[in-house]
Design a protein that fits this description.
Elements: H1 7-27, H2 34-69, E1 80-87, E2 93-100, H3 104-118, E3 124-127, H4 130-139, H5 146-163, H6 165-174, E4 179-187, E5 193-197, H7 198-216, H8 221-230, H9 234-244, H10 252-270, E6 297-298, E7 306-307, H11 323-336, E8 342-343, H12 357-369, E9 373-377, E10 380-383, H13 390-399, E11 405-407, E12 414-417, E13 423-426, E14 429-435, H14 441-445, H15 451-461, H16 469-478, H17 480-493
Parallel strand pairs: 1-4, 12-14
Antiparallel strand pairs: 1-2, 2-3, 4-5, 6-7, 8-10, 9-10, 11-12, 13-14
Helix pairs in contact: 1-5, 1-6, 2-3, 2-4, 2-5, 2-6, 4-5, 8-10, 9-10, 11-12, 15-17
């Protein structure tokens, strides 16, 4: 059975429990002793302040309703209350509250409605005698007698009950309108009193995080801000950061925390009710496009630049020939290659300059018209007297993209790939392309003699291929190199 949390009931019940514990401890103290008299007086002030908290919540509820019903031309400005706790000059604990609007005229108008509801309005809740108990607790911190320890425990419970009046007030007011707690008073075990500015603490934490992020991460704060403002998903930002620093890839949890921190910083700066300094953040900037070392940007007139699907191979222009000898050199390479060899224009880029791919395409078109080669797919060719081989054709296409493929065991019309292509048309047949089940599977499969056996062994080692042990044993004996590489691949990814 699911239990629903009620913050108001939890806060008020906790304060009632603290008062009851204080009553229990007071019974153990000596009647007429100075600390007991002072604590009983403080208890009475706590109960009075608690009643004032309830009355304040009721007053704000009536004032909010009157503010909502007030006739006006435009939309109703949102009411917000700020709560501030401190120790007054006379040693009293004081919690001040005030309504805030973006316009001061609205503040005065709302305060006028509260005066009409109640006649006079106090903007603070005061508990006198607080500092007297604090001083007694400090003086008795080194005492070792049992009676003194009981008195100190009673003092701690009394001070804790006072401090938690702010929590009870915040829980009640928070159900009426948005609330912002600016500061609070905290009590140490030995009576140490500190006033904590919550805005200053949060600002310091956010500033420290921005400095740490700029020192440790390669992603600029401007791009992280853009990701937070545009609602970029955690997985998308994680992919971008992994591409940015492949040698030190962050985890999903770290990326999630970074987005949450940036959203907190943006929320802190957008809080108009805060009058203090803001978190220093740069202007948002779109995520920089990260290009692999072997890719370039291409741009058509009137369109945004995009990454070319064709990868450079690093051999462009290494054996360049003149224009008259290019077609002959290409024809000679095709004729001397294996009958199963399939190729694209990228397989001849060593014969021309790096930016002269169109010359190769024109030569391929002439060889096709003279029936020397035959197209089997878009941009993929084989010798006219060569053999059909869909895997070789797919690998030729993927060579141009610096991607790899290997056959799927026991499926004739499917291949694994480490690229983005999901289908490949060879002649009249269409083959399905699936993401490789293990990183590096397709690349490794193209380095061995029998890629199909390698894929089958790798899948068997990860229990994704439920073949009989005897059949796998025969395959291992027949293909020891493939078996060794499959074990290495699985161990690297485990």
């Amino acid at each position: 059975m699911k239990v629903l949390m009620n913050p108001v009931r939890d806060a008020t019940d906790r304060h009632d429990r603290l008062v009851n514990e204080l009553d229990t401890v007071l019974l153990d103290l000596t009647a007429g002793a100075h600390p007991r008299v002072a604590l009983e007086a403080l208890r009475a002030q706590i109960l009075k302040a608690r009643q004032e908290v309830d009355e304040l919540a009721a007053l704000l509820e009536r004032g909010r309703q009157a503010w909502k019903d007030r006739p006006r031309r435009g939309p109703t400005p949102e009411l917000r209350v700020t709560l501030h706790a401190q120790i007054g000059p006379a040693g009293a604990w004081r919690a001040s509250w005030s309504p805030v609007f973006q316009s001061y005229d609205d503040v005065k108008a709302f305060q006028g409605l509260l005066v009409m509801e109640r006649g006079s309005v106090r903007h603070d809740i005061c508990v006198p005698g607080f500092h007297e108990i604090v001083d007694y607790l400090r003086r008795s911190a080194q005492a070792g007698s049992l009676e003194r320890r009981r008195e100190m425990e009673a003092c701690r419970r009394a001070l804790t009950a006072v401090v938690h009046l702010q929590d009870a007030a915040a829980a009640l007011i928070g159900t009426i309108c948005p609330l912002h707690v600016q500061s609070r008073v905290e009590i140490g075990y030995g009576g140490e009193v500190s006033e904590v500015d919550l805005d200053e603490v949060e600002l310091g934490q956010l500033k420290a995080w921005t400095l740490e992020w700029e020192a440790r991460q390669a992603l600029p704060l401007a791009e992280l801000r853009h990701a937070a403002e545009t609602g970029l998903s955690i997985s998308a930002l994680h992919r971008h950061m992994c591409q940015l620093t492949p040698e030190a890839q962050p985890g999903l949890a770290e990326v999630s925390r970074a987005l949450a921190r940036m959203q907190a910083a943006l929320g802190y700066n957008a809080a108009w009710w805060r009058s203090g300094p803001r978190v220093p953040l740069p202007e948002a900037a779109p995520l920089a496009r990260i290009l692999p070392a072997n890719r370039t940007l291409v741009q058509k007139e009137g369109r945004q630049p995009r990454m070319s699907p064709i990868a450079t191979r690093g051999v462009e222009g290494s054996g360049a020939v003149d224009t008259t000898g290019l077609r002959g050199a290409m024809a000679e390479r095709i004729a001397t290659a294996s009958p199963r060899w399939h190729f694209t224009a990228g397989d001849f880029m060593d014969l021309v300059e790096p930016d002269d791919r169109k010359r190769v395409l024109r030569c391929l078109d002439r060889l096709k018209r003279t029936s020397v080669i035959t197209p089997v797919s878009k941009g993929v060719y084989r010798r006219t007297d060569g053999h059909r081989d869909p895997l070789s054709g797919l690998q030729a296409l993927l060579r141009d993209r610096d991607e790899h493929a290997c056959p799927v065991p026991d499926e004739r019309m499917a291949f694994y790939t480490d690229g983005r292509l999901r289908s490949f048309r060879y002649g009249e047949a269409t083959y399905r392309l699936r993401p490789e089940p293990h990183p590096g599977l397709c690349r490794a499969a193209q380095q061995v003699e029998d890629g199909l056996a390698f894929a089958r062994l790798a899948l068997h080692l990860t229990r994704k291929d439920a073949r009989r042990t005897r059949e796998i044993s025969r395959l291992i004996e027949a293909r020891p190199q493939e078996a060794q590489m499959a074990e290495q691949l699985v161990s690297q990814n485990s």
